Automatic annotation (TrEMBL):
SUPFAM superfamilies xref list: MFS general substrate transporter
GO molecular function: transmembrane transporter activity
Key words, A-Z: Membrane, Transmembrane, Transmembrane helix
TM helices/strands, residue ranges: 41-63, 92-116, 128-146, 152-173, 239-262, 274-296, 308-326, 338-361, 373-394, 406-425
Organism: Aphis craccivora
Domain Major facilitator superfamily (MFS) profile: 1-429
UniProt feature coiled coil, ranges: none
Superkingdom classification of source: Eukaryota
Name of the molecule in the record: Facilitated trehalose transporter Tret1-like
One of the record's GO cellular component terms: membrane
Places the protein is found: Membrane
Length: 482
């Protein structure tokens, strides 16, 4: 219930992401009440993204100070304001302002993943976090469908109603117990866990684990993260991994296809009506989001990400090969005119199995509790900045490069992403947040070394973290000094 309530905001995220695909063709029509040129159209599309980093940074500060739930609820407010301004716009200035404000809300929505990660049990965290991509896909499908039959002004007002529904639903859920405990509100944390778990024994055990973790990290209710906290391996290692993951995700072209769906099908030479094709993309995104949520309970994260990246590379390479062979021909004269559409739809489908949802989901998993709020805002802000760069560059990219070259570029980025995932992405399925934290910490490395010593010297009766036993073997003193 808490996960669904939090991710209602994700519907608005999908609406904002897909809105430009239906807005721009209507604005570029000669009968539009607001006339724009191609440059202005690209700014309208990208303004829904350029403010995402600002919103993500705001959410990081709010999560650390006001709480996870409060931040998720506050996200609904700029969504409501932005959509209302867009719906009432009479010139390009107000249209751009509304897109900018709703873009701030998209950035703030990254708090949903942190909240869901902290209220979920380890065995349920994957599927509950995957509600986010599912709801984003629902939002994209809704706005594509409405945009094909309604003026963009009416669509905007309907989107505003969704944000109001989100504000009401989040009000019914409890605050994150981890955040409450970190602020010294132990009794409130216990009540929150009882609401979430419904079993006193389960709630008490989880609260004890949270408090032990806080004690191990010398965390108190009044303490704030220091520079030393951010330079710890448990912070900078997942930071670099996620940033690289986001760069490769954007380079693979999935957000270019999403934001410019109608235009992209025209450029790719598809013989199918572009509006119908864009709705087909949204339907496939939704179906594959649901499929991904099922797989994530049974398949390792690394396996899903690598499979997704490899299949994306294959689909874009196939599309590139088709364009290389038949690009000079007129669209109506090309054989097998369905091939570009099939390749793009397949690319969108497999992207939802790993490359699109996993970086966002893992933001709430990889960072320690003490800095999770700040890093849960900083990393998405960089991810959104990369999306802005790709969306803003897309019109120029489509002009500067041939269609087949664009496809080959996307294929190369996806192939490189598969190699990166295989080499660096940690496996988090079934692990608690504390166990994931120890994957990157020196203490976790010490424990692994001590386990190796236990296997090699069973008579010493080593235990992970047993300093006395470890000190008896001089070769391990430096590694396991603790």
């Amino acid at each position: 219930m808490s996960a669904v309530a939090a991710h209602v905001n994700s519907i608005s995220v999908g609406m904002c992401q897909g809105f430009s695909a239906v807005l721009l063709p209507q604005l570029l029509d000669s009968n539009s009440s607001i006339l724009v040129n191609n440059v202005e159209a690209s700014w309208i599309a990208s303004l829904g993204v350029i403010s995402n980093p600002l919103g993500a940074l705001m959410s990081g500060v709010f999560m650390q100070t006001l709480g996870r739930k409060t931040t998720v609820q506050l996200t609904s407010i700029p969504f409501l304001i932005g959509w209302t301004i867009i719906g009432l716009s009479t010139d390009i200035t107000f249209l751009c302002l509304g897109r900018f404000i709703s873009g701030v809300a998209v950035g703030m929505s990254s708090a949903c993943y942190v909240y869901v990660a902290e209220v979920s049990l380890a065995k349920h965290r994957g599927v509950l976090s995957s509600f986010g991509p599912i709801f984003v896909s629902i939002g994209v499908l809704i706005v594509y469908s409405l945009g094909s039959i309604m003026p963009w002004q009416v669509v905007s007002i309907l989107c505003a109603l969704t944000s109001f529904l989100s504000f009401l639903s989040v009000n019914l859920t409890p605050e994150s117990p981890s955040w409450l405990a970190s602020k010294g509100r132990v009794a409130d944390a216990g009540k929150s866990l009882m609401w979430l778990r419904r079993k006193p024994s389960l709630a008490d055990k989880e609260l004890a684990d949270i408090l032990n973790n806080l004690a191990d990290n010398c965390d108190t209710g009044s303490s704030a993260p220091t520079l030393r906290d951010f330079t710890a391996p448990a912070v900078w290692k997942p930071f670099l991994i996620l940033v690289c993951f986001f760069v490769l995700q954007e380079a693979s072209g999935i957000y270019i296809i999403l934001y410019y769906a109608v235009n992209f099908f025209q450029v790719a030479g598809s013989t199918v009506d572009s509006n119908v094709a864009s709705i087909a993309v949204a339907v496939l995104r939704l179906v594959m989001s649901v499929t991904g949520s099922v797989c994530i309970q049974h398949v390792n994260r690394r396996t899903m990400a690598m499979t997704s990246a490899v299949l994306m590379a294959v689909s874009m390479a196939a599309c590139g090969a088709y364009e290389s062979a038949y690009g000079p021909l007129l669209v109506n004269a090309r054989p097998y005119g369905w091939v570009p559409l099939a390749c793009i739809l397949f690319n969108v489908s497999v992207s939802m199995l790993g490359m699109v949802p996993l970086p966002w989901m893992m933001i709430g998993e990889l960072f320690p509790l003490k800095v999770r709020g700040i890093m849960g805002g900083l990393v998405p802000s960089l991810g959104y900045f990369f999306i802005f760069v790709t969306v803003k560059m897309s019109p120029g990219l489509m002009t500067a490069l041939a269609t087949d070259q664009i496809m080959w570029l996307f294929a190369a980025a996806a192939a490189f992403a598969a190699c990166f995932v295989a080499a660096f992405l940690p496996e988090t399925r079934g692990k608690t947040l504390l166990q994931i934290e120890k994957l990157f910490s020196s203490d976790g490395q010490c424990d692994e070394t001590c386990k190796g010593a236990a296997a090699k010297y069973p008579e010493k009766k080593f235990k992970p973290g047993d300093a006395t036993a470890v000190y008896t073997i001089s070769s391990l003193v430096d590694v396991c000094h603790k």
